[in-house]
TrEMBL record:
Protein EC: 2.6.1.52
Lineage of origin: Eukaryota, Viridiplantae, Chlorophyta, Mamiellophyceae, Mamiellales
Cofactor(s), names only, from the UniProt record: pyridoxal 5'-phosphate
Gene Ontology MF terms: O-phospho-L-serine:2-oxoglutarate aminotransferase activity; pyridoxal phosphate binding
Taxonomy, superkingdom: Eukaryota
Segments forming domain Aminotransferase class V: 2-338
Protein name, as recorded: phosphoserine transaminase
Species annotation: Micromonas pusilla (strain CCMP1545) (Picoplanktonic green alga)
Sorted UniProt keywords: Amino-acid biosynthesis, Aminotransferase, Pyridoxal phosphate, Serine biosynthesis, Transferase
Length: 349
């Protein structure tokens, strides 16, 4: 979801942005109006997250999936080993992609628990002198979320935050690279935001596409080519809104309350609804659950939920079941509607 007031603001400015006579979609990205939009978006994001000066902020096309390749090409330009901690489907994809560009070590995985937990850091088999350690801070499909930033010593920690970006405060200095697609918590699809410590960039692998060169992108303020203007603009509106709401602490508080309401409903259902995820690592954003009554009941649940206006509750095609994605813009009322529906469905079935 995007917040309704953001959609309305974008709608109001759609055809004639602040009296410029143009839509943001029609502007030159080198013109003063768009340059201002872009500069404000970066400044607001820096303020919102508290990004230190020695980190670059990049607005890049190609989503998070492109970063799976860009990261090894920037952080290990001459090869070396990269450690991966795989706690779900997205970490697995990042690992598979990195393998094309760097020697990879699977330092830890929760595959044997069907990605329902996070192996303790003390058990990770990290490589001394690794170029980086990669984690996925929130696995969108499995609903498994890191609750603390793992301490990996001096090796740069790289986190895919696609599905929990800006959902809670981020201690940027503990990371080498933070990245994620914006389309869940921030804005419309079409962009990834990369926050990278400046000493980690400068050199790229020989075969690195120009568009994946973080230093080049930083030198050009993400405008080496035509940037995703509309997505930058809309994301900028969301940054302003989150600042006005009181910043990421306030956002987190709201997200904790929303998630608690849903997990309580699942846990209090006497096994009618089941969360497969280790309680310690349950995601605040993606809540997968099954119905104890089996697949046919699940189908009925999803069909009736959809008819009741509860959209996109089907679990990812790779795992089935149900999944409620309760990203930042999902209001408490949305979760309440779901929880009420779940109780009613249980009573009737
Ligand atoms: N990582 C995670 C955690 C995701 O949830 C997704 C998208 N669902 C991706 C990466 C891929 O993102 P994109 O579609 O922007 O390439």
């Amino acid at each position: 979801m995007l917040p309704l007031d953001i959609l309305e603001e974008a709608q109001a400015d759609m055809i004639n942005y602040k009296g410029t006579g143009m839509s943001v979609m029609e502007m030159s990205h080198r013109g003063k109006d768009f340059m201002k939009i872009a500069a404000e978006a970066e400044a607001d994001l820096r303020e919102l997250v508290g990004i230190p000066d020695n980190y670059k902020v990049l607005f890049l096309q190609g989503g998070a999936s492109s970063q799976f390749a860009a990261i090894p090409m920037n952080l290990a330009p001459k090869g070396g080993v990269a450690d991966f901690v795989v706690t779900g489907a997205w970490g697995k994809k990042a690992f598979a992609e990195a393998k094309k560009y760097v020697d990879v070590n699977l330092a830890a995985t929760s595959a044997d628990s069907n990605f329902s937990t996070i192996p303790p850091v003390s058990e990770w088999k990290l490589t001394p002198g690794a170029k980086f350690v990669h984690i996925c801070s929130n696995e969108t499909i499995g609903g498994v979320e890191f609750k603390d930033v793992p301490d990996v010593g001096d090796v740069p920690l790289v986190a895919d935050m696609s599905s929990n970006y800006l959902s809670k405060p981020i201690d940027v200095k503990k990371y080498g690279v933070i990245y994620g697609g914006v389309q869940k918590n921030i804005g419309p699809a079409g962009m990834a935001i990369v926050i990278v410590r400046d000493d980690l960039i400068g050199e790229v692998a020989d075969a690195c596409p120009t568009m994946f060169d973080y230093q080049l992108m930083a030198d050009n303020e993400s405008m080496y080519n035509t940037p995703p203007c509309w997505t930058m603009y809309t994301s900028g509106l969301v940054f302003k809104k989150l600042l006005k709401m009181g910043g990421l602490e306030a956002v987190e508080k709201m997200n904790i309350e929303k998630a608690a309401m849903l997990y309580d409903a699942i846990d209090g259902s006497d096994g009618y609804y089941v969360s497969p995820v280790d309680k310690k690592y349950r995601s605040l954003m993606n809540v997968p659950f099954t119905l104890g009554g089996g697949e046919d009941l699940e189908k009925k649940f999803l069909k009736e939920a959809n008819a009741a206006g509860l959209e996109s509750l089907k679990g990812h095609r790779s795992v089935g079941g149900a999944r409620a994605s309760i990203y930042n813009a999902m209001p408490m009322e949305g979760v309440k509607t779901l929880v009420d529906f779940m109780a009613e469905f249980k009573k009737n079935n």
